[in-house]
């Protein structure tokens, strides 16, 4: 890495190549890349950014809210809901890894091994049940929580319009 500048990633704390490409974004920020031409995302190295995006795609809001609810029930305070998920309990900050799992012939099969940096691993079990629409009529429907800082469909309606239910909830 002769002549290449390095920087410590703010997430994995690894020393990685950090070179300015000479390009700037529309907002004026400089574009930095590693030796393979992959972009840094602020303090996050390309490797950590790739794993963050993969985690965001792999675990939807249903999975994540279920995990956060269980962590809060166990007495943890959620510090970061984005990858890497961090929680605090008794003054100690812990990193939470999320892995999909399923049972096969009585054994647990996990999608990938736990990361060495994870202090807690949340296993999200997957199962499939085939049902008819009549069988699921009385089942509760998950509606993702509303973020008050983001516009809702009712605030996007013309003046005088109203919505009596969450748009899209009937499709669950």
Structure description:
- Strand 7 (92-104) and strand 8 form a beta hairpin.
- The longest helix has 13 residues, at 46-58.
- This protein has helices spanning 46-58, 61-73, and strands spanning 6-8, 15-17, 19-24, 30-33, 77-80, 85-89, 92-104, 107-110, 120-125.
- It contains 2 helices and 9 strands, in the order ββββααβββββ.
- With 172 residues, it is of the alpha+beta class.
- Helix content is 15%, strand content 28%.
- The strands form 3 sheets. Strands 5, 6, 7, 8 and 9 form a 5-stranded mixed sheet that branches. A two-stranded antiparallel sheet has the order 1-2. A two-stranded antiparallel ribbon has the order 3-4.
Number of strands: 9
Structural class by secondary-structure content: alpha+beta
Enumerate the spans where pLDDT stays under 50 for 5 or more consecutive residues. Answer: none
The major β-sheet equals: 5 strands, mixed
Give the SSE string.
EEEEHHEEEEE
């Amino acid at each position: 890495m002769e002549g290449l500048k390095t920087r410590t990633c703010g997430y994995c704390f690894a020393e990685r190549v950090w070179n300015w490409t000479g390009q700037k974004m529309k907002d004026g920020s400089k574009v930095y890349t590693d030796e393979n031409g992959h972009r840094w995302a602020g303090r996050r190295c390309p490797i950590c950014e790739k794993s963050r995006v993969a985690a965001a795609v792999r675990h939807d809001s249903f999975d994540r809210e279920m995990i956060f609810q269980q962590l809060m029930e166990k007495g943890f305070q959620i510090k970061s809901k984005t990858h890497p998920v961090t929680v605090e309990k008794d003054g100690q900050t812990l990193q939470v890894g999320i892995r999909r799992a399923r049972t096969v012939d009585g054994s647990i099969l996990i999608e990938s091994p736990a990361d060495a940096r994870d202090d807690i691993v949340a296993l999200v079990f997957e199962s499939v049940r085939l049902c008819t629409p009549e069988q699921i009529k009385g089942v509760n429907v998950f509606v993702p929580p509303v973020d008050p800082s983001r516009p809702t469909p009712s605030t996007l309606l013309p003046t005088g319009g109203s919505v009596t239910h969450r748009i899209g909830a009937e499709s669950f």
